[in-house]
Amino acid sequence: MNRHSFQPLASRGRHVVVAILCTFAFSSVLTVGLSVWSTARSKNKAAIVEVAGRQRTLAERYVEQVVLAREGERADPATIAQDLRESGRVLLEGGTAPPVAGDDDEISLPAEGDRIARAQLEQERRLANDLTAAGAAILAHRPVSSVHLTAGEHLSRGDATDKLRALAALESNMALNATRTIAQATDRNIQNLIVLQAALGAGGLLLSLLLAWGLIVITRRQTAHFRSVVDASTDFVMVFGPGGCRYVSPSVSRLTGREGAEVVGEAVFSVIHDEDRAAVRTAAKLAEPHELVFRVLDASGGWRVLEAHVSDLREDRQVGGIVLNARDVTERMQLEEELTRQAFHDTLTELPNRALFRDRLDHALARSRRSAEPLGVLLIDLDGFKQINDSLGHDAGDQVLQEVARRFLAAVRGADTVARFGGDEFAVLVEGADEDQAIGTAGRLLEHLAAPVSVAGRELVLSASIGIVLRDGATATGEDLIRHADIAMYAAKENGRATYEVFQDEMARELGALLGIEHELKLGLERGEFKLHYQPMYELSTERVIGVEALLRWQSPTRGEVPPARFIPVAENTGLIVELGEFVLREGCRQAAVWHRDESVEHDLVTWINVSPRQLVHAGLGDTVRGALAETGLPPHGLGLEITESAIVEPGTNGERARRELEELHELGVRIAIDDFGTGFSSLGQLRHFPIDAIKVDKSFVQGAESDAKDATITSNLISLAHALGVLAVAEGIESAAQLDWMRQFGCDNAQGFLFARPAPAGELYKLLLDPPATPPGSTAVA
Hints:
The protein is of the alpha/beta class. Helix content is 54%, strand content 17%.
């Protein structure tokens, strides 16, 4: 770490204090330990000196005992000899010295460590052994000269007792020498201990002084750094005392554009906002509250928002006041306000969003329950808005939404809430409104919306579907009202759009049934509950089967056989029609390929498969068709696609892409037919340039031709139109011989219907392909 770096909370100062304490503790422990150790050694040395001195007494006592025993007196020289030898051993090797009767008790001694004293004690031990051996010889009436002396002493001739006394004197002198050596060593140890303790004390004191000096240096340095930090800090520090503000940090002067002396005392309150001044005064006197937000006038004349923490340091003798430590939170407060606004408002239209609408709805419900006043919720969905985004782009769509928001605001009362839920979905909260007033609001919304809108150089006429729900009980929640309004809006769309519907309980039951069908449709696809039936198509001129139409059938395990009219619209609305369509396409191509490979079946048989508008605009239809043909081996001319009129006039890029894909498939050899012709909105210009092979006249005209002159005329004209375009005319839904006769008279090319055959599984239809009837039913009635 750089030696100039500053960390106010670093542990260097604490380390110095800890080092000082450790130094004192170490010195004290070492001094006490040495003193204890020296005292213990001195105590041991004293015992050693005592036992060593006792050896002289034991030697003299032994001589006396031997003399008494020799003269026949009562004595016990053997015990004295044993004590003398054992004490000599203990002095040298350590252990417990035996007690001496009339003198002292047992004494525990450590082994002698001093080299000189140890040599003297070894010699003393040998002398003691020689003394006791000589005494034993005298008592045994043997000459002392027969004793082998181990200490190397030389005894003069003379009486045996004199020799014994000489050995005792030598032993006593050697014990005395050892005692003197041990005492001198003890004195030296004590002197050394005194010197060592003095050195330790002086060294510890010097080291502590050095560490204390270092602590002072570090403290001064940290104080200087703290002052620099406070001076350079953007935080605002103010210290209040009895006379007002006693100190302000330089940051306060920089913020207010005034010198520090100009904002101390009572002057500091002149830069605080009038509405916040009382709260700051209270905090400066009572240290309450601990958190405070107030505004300060800056040098530019604007108001800055400060957030302060209040600390009561009046008991701190270094401060003696109340400290306000504040920071500028102006930008944060502005950001919070903006985030709050964004959290509850739609950024595009500036209208309240779903969250704010829900909050206002909950409050309105609470008021409505207390006052028993009515309340209404309108949910609005623009009709066909997706086409605007697809054809004109999302920027144009955003402009439309902004204009719609302005018109909706102009159509409601000032107390009403208009919100945007997202996409092209809006909601209106109408308080104090009964059913008639809620319907009147819906009518004004549609009326304001009906005026043309100029966007991207084009005039657009907008419409919307509106669902209305009224509070229908004290237990209804805001979520319930929104859900019911959504159901009513869905019903408005089902009823033709550009209108409104008031929620009824039956709508919820119907929606629940539809949702149930949707769920079962998904499961049915996974479980393989769908099958294809086939209905033959006859060529009227040759009376032979030239094609079959693949029709989807659903055998539900819970609902039984579900009619296509029941589940196809649900699949269309939910998007499941795309998956169902792919299943029909692949399964139809597979079965068609089986028939195509069968030599018993006409090779020019065409299998026609219906393609829904959603399938057509869904990207990848061309790839799906080509993949199915490749997988099954069916030649392209064996497949026909039936599309509705509305699908070929789909505006925008999706429609253009779909037309290109159909053109590519037609060039590949796939047949194209317009289904339910006469019920859509296609123009002759589009039909003229569109790649089609056949037009299928809707059964409503075919079946009405035998009883209604207008339907007969329309059917005849549609067939003529098909021939004028150079395509085949196919009559759908023929159920009687009379209808077949009219189609022949009109010159229709092909026909299908229950009169010929009902849709049947592939196995049953195969029998018809192998053995077709001689003439189609009803042909005999034709002239």
